[in-house]
Specification:
The chain is mostly helical. It has 3 helices and no strands. The protein starts with a helix and ends with a helix.
Length: 73
């Protein structure tokens, strides 16, 4: 086995390992999403409990230059 063959094999294995790690991260995110969804069924958001789901924040509070600079819009 030459050094080039060894390097190519190592590259391929590292790439496969990276793909597997991405798959694991995707699964973890999906599990967390499912857990949040399940939890929200029994414990609604406190804002929703206080004001209802259909309440929208007036644009006067979000369109100011200060809000855009500090909070990103």
């Amino acid at each position: 086995m030459t050094i080039t063959e060894r390097n190519n094999l190592q590259y391929d294995l590292r790439h496969r390992m990276w793909l597997a790690q991405m798959e694991v991260e995707t699964c973890k995110e999906e599990i967390a999403r499912l857990n949040r969804f399940y939890k929200e069924q029994f414990e609604p958001d406190i804002f929703d409990q206080m004001f209802g789901v259909s309440v929208k924040v007036p644009s006067i509070y979000t369109d100011t230059p200060m809000a855009e600079e500090v909070y990103g819009g």
